Amino acid sequence: MTVAFAVEDRVARVTLDRPDRMNAVDAATEAELELIWREIESRDDISCVVLSGAGQKAFCTGADMKGGAGKSGLEYWSESRENGFGGLAFRRSLDVPVIARVNGYALGGGFEMVLGCDIVIAAETAKFGLPEARVGRLPLDGGMVLLQRKIPHNLAMGMMLSGRHFTAAEMQTYGIVNETVPLEQLDAAVDRWVADLVACAPLSLKAIKQTVNRTAHLSPAEAQALRTPALVRALASEDSVEGVAAFREKRAPIWRGR
Questions:
Q1: Tens digits of per-residue pLDDT, 79-103?
Q2: Does residue 132 have an active-site annotation?
Q3: Domain that includes residue 229, residue range
Q4: Most CB contacts within 10 A, which of 172, 202, 209, 216?
Q5: Is residue 181 located within the same domain as residue 84?
Q6: How many domains does the chain have?
Q7: For this structure, is 112 an active site residue?
Q8: Contact at 8 Å (CB) between 121 and 190?
Q9: What is the overall mean pLDDT for the chain?
């Protein structure tokens, strides 16, 4: 698999591509994705990320079981993937919002990557699932630990224990998908969300995501009292002054990320 990465107009686009269009991830792709996430984390000129799969068949179908690695379940489990599948599933150092553009199958690790995104826009034809139990494996890279924290217990267990594929409409009722649209309208829908995020101050976006990620385990009072680095930076930024000035002057703000 190859990974296309480009940044334009404050938007980073990360696209998974494989000739057979099933977009299974191998070890080399995992390493490439890790480098991309680290670069995005180091930059102040990015307001959001759009993660997608090339073509119309699949977003990502998880680990490459046909790649010839020949690893046992225990060998795969023992390897270090501290940020979950694709370096994203439960990554907490990436403060830039990530939009999942789901065009087809998002299965196994692909679905775990979706769970690591902040906003999910899916085509009506998209399919989601954690089918690992059907091949004698487990959703080790985020599925078992993330899904139960995002949706009700019975819904999470139904997905993991059945190994079934679920539609985008079902995932929207579960609260995983933000918006479901016909495939031909998918890019337009993603662009609308991108426009909304880019209209916001990039440091504010980072502060919101960092605070949410670092305070979920705290009580409301403890969370309110926590001074996350991104929060302090946003409140003390030039953009904070610019946003208020632009509002008073009835013009669009000019964000500089500082």
A1: 667 888 999 998 999 999 999 999 9
A2: yes
A3: 201-249
A4: 202
A5: yes
A6: 2
A7: yes
A8: yes
A9: 90
